[in-house]
Design goal:
Elements lengths: L8 H18 L2 E12 L2 H6 L3 H21 L10 E6 L2 E6 L10 H24 L2 H8 L7 E14 L11 E4 L1 H12 L8 E4 H9 L4 E6 L13 E7 L8 H5 L5 H13 L4 H23 L4 H6 L5 H13 L3 H14 L4 H13 L3 H14 L4 H13 L3 H14 L4 H13 L3 H14 L4 H13 L3 H14 L4 H13 L3 H14 L4 H13 L3 H14 L4 H14 L2 H14 L3 H7 L10 H7 L1
Parallel strand pairs: 4-6
Antiparallel strand pairs: 1-3, 1-4, 2-3, 4-5, 6-8, 7-8
């Protein structure tokens, strides 16, 4: 017996089993997330100086400000797969993770969008809270408005469901991860800020700069930030450009202060010229009013008519459509793009986006019509040619698909998707050398394009260059560890090399990631059969049949397994079902050595005759 804490081998194995069970039960996903924490500064003082009822009322005002901003950004319309928000006590937490690997966009573009939303949220929240009833009362009592501390971070989180914690959570699913802890620490540190008291991590500054968001940051010495040792750098938001007002205009319009109340903020500004948020509040109010006056002067329709008609701008439709696209609500995208086309029949972007939605709805002819219109309005739109080519490819109109991809790369030689889609068409035409050449070019332009590695692997597999095929599948799963098809395809290559244990391992991974993929269950069954594990193989085939009962090949493989077990009755019964679905299995069975013991059997001859 060893003293102190120890874990024996059995204990380690149990931990491993518990972890695997946890992953299976929770069915979580890793997400690129932007995390925001907002907290009322000095809330303990608020609690000490007010009754519990009054304290709750003040917190309710804070929560209402957060809800108002949340709704003005249209975040309330989308599922928890994109937006998580929780308001409790003096704190609000917002987590945005809109990137979806199945949606063909760059990871960076989704993170930039989330970063932009988080910055808009934080600035809008600061504005509304500064003008809240509670802070107006403080001004009445000649007290400085109470501020909010905000911290924003970006990183990878694990978004999952845990039924055992349902009673502890407000939502069925939630995110966990150290970036969330860091965001909270950054928020705590922001209380010591000298200007906005909005602190962000290096990652947020990077994505804000990449997205050309109209704000500026300055570094904060990390040695002065207690508790933060793992974040490379912290920055404070110190400047908001005038152009930013358009992004928070909805929130500004919700500030309904009377003239006398505005005067109080103006006097506060005179007394304290360095008060960042009072200055922003007054400045943005002036800019917003000036923009309203410019719009009114530009109106051709008499003002009395505009007051009777509630108009929704194209930007509003585009913003809503983008979020719906991310969550796969393509019918709604079609509806929203149609509204934009009604507003402006010459908006090529609306036709293009509606065409993409139709592609995802598998309404390819409608998609082609929309891409035709996009190209008519903008003959230089390489993306439209590329996407129309993809629609033609799915309809097996390969010549048209290749023609469109040719035009796309002529217009934009750096369009990786066009080379990739042309490669797909060449693969289906069995022109594998041309396909590989196109996949090479797509990868040269976009080295992280996992699907290109996977399909290049398929081309090498068909050419029986299994080593090269496996190298490409390896790269595909390295780039996307949850790429089920790549694991399945690598399993096929290992099977052809008679490395059945490796093949089964890959099939198991594919099934773990995509349990309803019948072909992975079939392939696993074949590999198990090759190892003589016929009972296990039959279980795999049964699962495949449960998922896809009309696939003749599964019934045939099941018949082979029973034949090799020496179970004639079940072998012939399953063979009959395979032949009923597809008569070509008669000829297969006559030559398949798995049925060698029955070739002279009269019952077998009757079935295959």
């Amino acid at each position: 017996m060893r003293k102190g804490k120890s874990i024996d081998c059995e204990g380690k194995e149990q931990i491993k089993m518990d972890f695997e069970e946890f992953k299976q039960k929770t069915k979580g996903i890793k997400c690129f997330a932007v995390i925001l924490f907002a907290d009322i500064i000095g809330c303990s003082e608020v609690s000490n100086n007010n009754s519990i009822e009054r304290y709750a009322y003040i917190l309710n005002q804070f929560h209402k400000c957060a809800k108002s901003v949340y709704e003005s950004l249209n975040l309330h319309r989308y599922s928890e797969e994109i937006v998580e928000i929780e308001a409790k006590g003096d704190e609000v937490c917002l987590i945005l993770h809109s990137y979806d690997k199945n949606f063909q966009e760059k990871e960076e573009d989704a993170i930039i969008k989330d970063t932009k939303d988080a910055i808009i949220f934080s600035i809008s929240l600061k504005m509304l809270w500064r003008a809240s009833e509670y802070n107006l009362e403080r001004l009445e009592n000649e007290l400085i408005p109470r501020d909010i501390a905000i911290g924003i971070n970006q990183g990878t989180v694990y978004y999952y469901k845990n039924q055992e914690l349902d009673k502890l959570r407000k939502t069925e699913k939630a995110s966990e991860g150290y970036p969330i802890n860091l965001a909270k620490r950054i928020e705590t540190a922001s209380r010591e800020g000298e200007k906005s008291k909005i602190f962000v991590s290096n990652n947020i500054v990077y994505f804000a700069n990449e997205g050309k968001i109209k704000v500026k940051f300055v570094p904060v010495p990390t040695k002065e930030l207690k508790g933060i040792t793992t974040v490379p750098g912290i920055h404070e938001l110190t400047e908001i450009e005038d152009d930013f007002v358009g992004l928070i205009d909805k929130s500004i319009k919700e500030i309904n202060l009377k003239p006398g109340q505005w005067e109080k903020y103006e006097r506060l500004k005179e007394m304290n010229p360095t008060d960042f948020w009072t200055d922003m509040l007054l400045r943005f109010r002036t800019i917003s009013k000036r923009k309203e006056e410019e719009v009114e002067r530009a109106l051709i329709i008499p003002k009395i008519k505009t007051e009777k008609i509630e108009r929704k701008s194209a930007d509003d439709y585009y913003d809503e459509a983008y979020k719906n696209y991310l969550i796969g609500n393509y019918e709604k995208v079609v509806e929203l793009m149609t509204e934009i086309i009604k507003l402006n029949p010459e908006d090529g972007g609306a036709y293009y986006n509606r065409g993409n939605a139709y592609v995802n709805l598998e309404q390819y002819k409608k998609a082609i019509e929309d891409f035709n219109k996009t190209i008519e309005l903008n003959p230089e739109d390489a993306e439209a040619y590329n996407n129309r080519g993809l629609a033609y490819y799915v309809l097996k109109q390969y010549d048209k698909a290749i023609e469109d991809c040719n035009k796309a790369v002529e217009l934009n030689p750096e369009l990786a998707g066009a080379y990739y889609n042309r490669g797909l068409a060449y693969s289906d035409l069995k022109q594998y050398d041309k396909a590989i050449k196109d996949y090479n070019k797509a990868i040269e332009i976009k080295p992280d394009l996992a699907v290109a590695y996977n399909n290049r692997g398929l081309a090498y597999y068909v050419l029986k260059e299994y080593g090269k095929a496996i190298e490409n599948y390896n790269k595909a799963v390295e780039l996307n560890p949850e790429y089920a098809d790549a694991y399945n395809n690598r399993g096929l290559a290992y099977s052809d090399l008679k490395q059945y244990d490796k093949a089964i391992k890959d099939y198991n991974k594919a099934i773990e990631l995509k349990p309803d993929d019948a072909k992975a269950w079939v392939n696993k069954g074949v590999a198990l059969g090759k190892l003589g594990r016929y009972d296990d193989a039959l279980k795999s085939y049964d699962k495949a049949i449960e998922l896809k009962p009309d696939y003749a090949g599964t019934w045939y493989n099941k018949a082979c397994a029973y034949s090799l077990k020496g179970d004639k009755e079940n072998a012939l019964r399953n063979l009959s079902k395979a032949i009923e679905s597809d008569a070509k299995h008669k000829e297969f069975a006559k030559k398949d050595k798995d049925f060698k013991n029955y070739w002279d059997d009269k019952d077998f001859k009757k079935i295959v005759s």
